[in-house]
Amino acid sequence: MSMSDRHYYKEVRLRQMRALVEIAKHGSFAEAARKLALSSPAVWQQVRALEREFDADLVTVRAGEALLTEEGELLTSLATPLIESFDGIRSLFAERRGKLERRLTVVTTTALLTHELPYAIARYRKAHPNVELTLMDRPSLESRGIFERGSADIAIIGAAGQEGTPPNCKSEELTRFTFHLVCPQHHPLLAKKRLKLEDIAQHPLILAGQGAAISNRVPEVLAMHGIGNSKVAVTSTNLALTISYVQMGYGIAIVPVPTTVVKSWMPSRHRHIALREVSQLFGHENIIMLHRTSSHELQHVKQFRETVLKQMQAE
Fold it and tell me: pTM of the predicted model, to two decimals?
């Protein structure tokens, strides 16, 4: 090995690459330092060492936020798979030796936990009773952020269809929730043969709340068609709340409804609330599963994914 090669391997440390990857995830030297159990100046020094080694500016700071340069993004895209693979070796080694404490964290939404995932989760828990399964209930956008920061192994969330897939991850479509009008059984909108946006906009609206991937869908569709006088009475974080708000007379709801709910809907059981599909006006919400594409994926994580895929794609 030449002297220049020795210098290269001495100076380019795994922890330096890890510091860059953590900054890319969190956009902050302080948060990266917290994750790495280092001080902020120490993380700064790690990045500056990388910049000297690669003769490139990798990170800039603007208004207190750490931002990757174009070259920083390039190096991060190359380094992230290496870091994740290296981090996975210890767990994979313990798994093969039968000494791994198996843990799985899944972040998803209230609607999915309540209506779409119970059977798959129960089936998985029965087959893998020794896995410490943690379920996090969060809105879709927050769930995605938790997954991207590495605090969850799998995210099952709604998507508007315009989001990109995080680096070194895979997105699998599981199903679609169609938009429905949720209103009292004898509401005049149910009697209209051809429901129009103008008809809907005349009533106070209950819409999906902030944090939902499709929270802006209805206002955007109305605005696109020149309808700007609609009133949003309340936003709702889940279907149970939505139904309660409709029952209390706050307005009519336009929200995506889980497939299992549509199939099993009975007005007598839902206190005289009716559904009417309005996907021709507002479309649908994709339900996706995000997971990492590391070659060191643990078997109990893979088996959970396969259980969910088999269950939800069969419905």
Answer: 0.72
